[in-house]
Design brief:
The protein has 458 residues and is α+β, with helices and mostly antiparallel strands. It has 17 helices and 14 strands. It has three domains: 225 residues, no CATH class; 123 residues, no CATH class; 74 residues, no CATH class. Helix 15 packs antiparallel against helix 16.
């Protein structure tokens, strides 16, 4: 199909918000014709035009995406105000992002553009002068999403450095539990989407196996001259330990953390309470983004929820000092009192063993029924477990046995999870704040505005 025919068909195809699948072949055709001078001239002219209509904005973004690998956005392509979380991404641009990171023809271009231009222009247009407000809005826009959410994988591609399929595979894998969490991936993705260059020439992977210090630090690869082994060294360090760092001591009540909107906060265990309840040596490191702040109270958006890959918006939290531990976030209990009891916790190896035993003690139907019948905390699971067990028992030897066994295993898992959670609430220590990163530490990506597009279109 000639490129003129593709362009002429766009207003009809873009009359409604198309699916990413419908946009991929259009992107592929435009990418194949990227060198066409007429196409490039049309992109530059449309980008320079003022008072574009919504259809003009849609057409411009599609042809700029396919031919140049950038998204200029537009006045009509706004993020969506949402009552629960505050914001949602623009649905048209979301589908277009998904198509771009799914396009094989655009892959090489996207890798290059990922370290140059903002991939979420709707938030740049909404907050052109505040990176931190952009960070908070983007974080809220992804809260409530998980491995099955179509808007989430593109965030982890870092603007197309990684392709969409790779990001989705990683997201689903981490959502199975026991394979690390997406907390660092989410913080890195949000910062990059807001315009902080989290790539900066670094040897990154779609997951973040090196932990927050390296993977949020746009690291460079170094070689130990003694062992000759390579390692990653962060080039962007936390705001609290930078050369001009803000005074903070994690175990000193007189010197509190100076967190504000847009910061990435960093918590960890203290003393010998260094591990997560799931065991296996998983360390209690966690990062999240501050999205609301008034006096001593905060709201945060955190990756790594659920089984490891959900993005959540916290309830209101209060920063308080706990003697013997340090600065941490407290939450309101049912009596409307601030307490650390509901906070995320870390454990010693001995305490992890106690939690493991709480789950292992419920192996077998007899043990589970005894707990369901004797402990009111388990009352909500009783009916579901009994129904699943009866269905499985009746299905033994039939084609439905496998499905019914799976449903029973889910209920068994829920009961054990509750038992582990109760045990975990009785031991361990609250995780404390160990530092934070700020947006000012990073180089900034450009918005693909008229000037930038004119240069790319030459």
């Amino acid at each position: 199909m000639a490129i003129d025919s593709v362009l002429d068909s766009l207003p009809t195809k873009l009359g409604v918000v198309p699916s990413a699948q419908a946009l991929v072949p259009i992107i592929e055709q435009l990418a194949a014709s990227a060198a066409d001078s007429g196409l490039r001239g049309r992109i530059a002219a449309m980008a320079a035009a003022t008072n574009r209509s919504e259809m003009d904005d849609r057409v411009l973004n599609v042809i700029a995406a396919g031919a140049l690998g950038v998204l200029p956005g537009g006045a009509s392509l706004k993020p969506v105000i949402e009552p629960t979380y505050g914001w949602r991404v623009n649905s048209f641009l979301s589908a277009l992002r998904h198509a771009m990171v799914s396009s094989k023809a655009l892959k090489a271009t996207m890798k290059k553009r990922s370290g140059q231009f903002i991939f979420y222009p709707e938030f740049y247009h909404e907050f052109p002068d505040s990176v931190d407000q952009r960070i908070a809005a983007l974080a809220r826009a992804h809260a409530g999403l998980g491995p099955t959410s179509p808007d989430l994988p593109a965030l982890y591609t870092l603007g197309g450095l990684f392709d969409g399929a790779e990001a989705l595979t990683q997201l689903k894998d981490m959502g199975k539990g026991g394979r690390g969490t997406t907390c660092v991936m989410t913080a890195r993705g949000i910062y990059h989407a807001a315009g902080c260059d989290m790539i900066d020439g670094s040897p990154l992977t779609v997951n973040t196996p090196s932990g927050p210090v390296a993977d949020l630090g746009t690291p460079t690869r170094k070689t130990d001259q003694t062992t000759k082994k390579t390692y990653l060294q962060a080039r962007r360090i936390r705001a609290d330990i930078a050369d001009d760092g803000k005074a903070f001591q994690d175990n000193n009540e007189a010197i509190r953390p100076q967190l504000t909107i847009g910061d990435i906060y960093y918590v960890n265990g203290t003393g010998d309470h260094l591990y997560l309840a799931r065991g296996g040596g998983a360390e209690a490191v966690h990062v999240g983004i501050i999205v609301g702040h008034a006096d001593d109270t905060y709201y945060t958006v955190d990756g790594g929820g659920g089984r490891g890959a959900d993005v959540t918006l916290s309830p209101m939290r209060k920063m308080m000092f706990k003697k013997g531990a340090g600065w941490s976030f407290a939450e309101l209990n049912r009596a409307k009192q601030w307490t650390h009891e509901g906070g995320t916790r870390s454990y010693s190896n001995a305490e992890v063993a106690v939690i493991d035993k709480a789950g292992a003690d419920l192996d077998g139907d007899v043990a589970i029924r005894a707990r369901l019948n004797s402990d009111r905390l388990f009352a909500g699971h009783k009916l579901n477990y009994e129904k699943a067990y009866s269905a499985w028992a009746a299905a033994i030897g039939t084609p439905s046995e496998k499905v019914c066994r799976h449903n029973l295993d889910v209920q068994i898992g829920n009961v054990k999870l509750l038992a582990r959670s109760i045990a975990g609430g009785r031991v361990g220590e609250v995780r404390t704040i160990h530092g934070w990163w700020e947006s000012e530490s990073y180089n900034q990506l450009a918005w693909a505005g008229p000037k930038q597009i004119a240069e790319l279109a030459r």
